Task: inverse folding
């Protein structure tokens, strides 16, 4: 099963992101997204065999404190990645502290799966995905956002199933 560790954006903050304006600007160049699926991906785990799921949950349980007291302060919408052909529009922000994901990745790597992990990864909120066959004009100014501070109150192990209508997410386990 395809898994990631993430946190869904609290409903109260969804109104701060100009989803409709983005849709008006880019129209058919972006994929349809479900606004309620807006989230931060902390760690993409990739395919995990069912028989390894309990071990993965135990490891996350041992290291869940790395997320304690984390706050995301929103800043602006940005094209991502910034130096290549952009595939996403993200809500960039600042974390008051960076979770020590290295501590979490080490016992998982190779033993359970090979997570997609870079130490310089900057957690962000994906707002829109461009269709792969489109080239985006980065000179288009992205709309502004209403700033907010979001206290991360839970992380979840999330199963992502790709369908023709977009990703379907299922929380496998939640940690408060």
Result:
């Amino acid at each position: 099963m395809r898994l990631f560790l993430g946190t869904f954006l609290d409903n109260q903050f969804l109104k701060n992101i100009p989803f409709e304006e983005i849709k008006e600007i880019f129209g058919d160049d972006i994929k349809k997204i479900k606004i309620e699926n807006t989230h931060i991906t902390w760690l993409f785990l990739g395919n995990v065999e069912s028989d390894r799921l309990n071990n993965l949950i135990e490891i996350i349980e041992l290291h869940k404190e790395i997320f304690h007291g984390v706050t995301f302060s929103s800043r602006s919408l940005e094209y991502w990645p910034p130096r290549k052909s952009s595939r996403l529009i993200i809500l960039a922000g600042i974390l008051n502290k960076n979770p020590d994901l290295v501590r979490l990745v080490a016992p998982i790597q190779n033993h359970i799966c090979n997570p997609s992990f870079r130490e310089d990864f900057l957690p962000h909120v994906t707002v829109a995905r461009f269709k792969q066959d489109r080239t985006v004009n980065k000179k288009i100014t992205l709309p502004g956002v209403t700033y907010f501070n979001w206290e991360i109150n839970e992380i979840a192990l999330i199963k992502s199933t790709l369908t023709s209508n977009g990703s379907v997410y299922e929380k496998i386990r939640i940690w408060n």
User: Anything to note?
Assistant: The longest strand covers residues 71-80.
